[in-house]
Amino acid sequence: MKIIVSKIPDEGVEIHSIETSRSLGITPSDLILDGDVHIDAMVSRQGRVFFVDAALRTALHINCSRCAGEFSYAVDTQFHCQEEPVKKTDLELDVPLQKGDMDIDKYAGDEVELNNLFREQVILAMPMHPLCKTDCLGLCPKCGQNLNIKKCDCREEEVNNPFSVIKKLFE
Ligand SMILES: [Zn+2]
Ligand SMILES: [Zn+2]
Predict the structure, then answer these.
(1) Do 159 and 79 belong together in one domain?
(2) 140: CA distance to ligand 2 center in Å?
(3) 69 in the same domain as 28
(4) Residue range of the domain that includes 69
(5) Which of 1, 74, 80, 83 has the fewest Cβ atoms within 10 Å of its own Cβ atom?
(6) Which ligand is nearest to the Cα of residue 149, counting in written order?
(7) What's the structural domain count of the chain?
(8) 125 C-alpha to center of ligand 1: Å?
(9) pLDDT tens digits for 62-118?
(10) pTM for this one?
(11) How close is the Cα of 58 to the center of ligand 1, in Å?
(12) 111 pairs with which residues across the strands?
């Protein structure tokens, strides 16, 4: 979705959009989406600086960092961006517009592709250590069995070992 910065009205403009990985330019090497990306945004402007306050909902198709199983990870996030023109006029040089937790980006020209911004936010939503469930049991370090599906015998053998040694001594 493109926006013409100089045409953003004083009261701002609301954007409601449903995007796909194709429209956002997200490739399988970035990540795989498990649904559309729902975007509700408010775009406002002060001079040539514009702001995007947005809520973004989608689901990512990812692998668990413990058991490697595939699962759908729900994303429901909000973000705030401040977009500044690459070339500022002298008047704008020292305007301190920056608010607290805001990302600051640069844009060039008057027409800006907001999907680049949304793409970045979807990719940022990817968790570092995703878990298919909080109590995921992971894989057995010895035999690689997915312990969520089935127990393996490895752990029991370890526990039994000292006893079998003692047992042997008494034989
Ligand atoms: Zn898991
Ligand atoms: Zn095992």
Answers:
(1) no
(2) 5
(3) yes
(4) 2-135
(5) 74
(6) 1
(7) 2
(8) 19
(9) 999 999 999 999 999 999 999 999 876 655 555 555 555 677 888 988 999 999 999
(10) 0.77
(11) 20
(12) 4
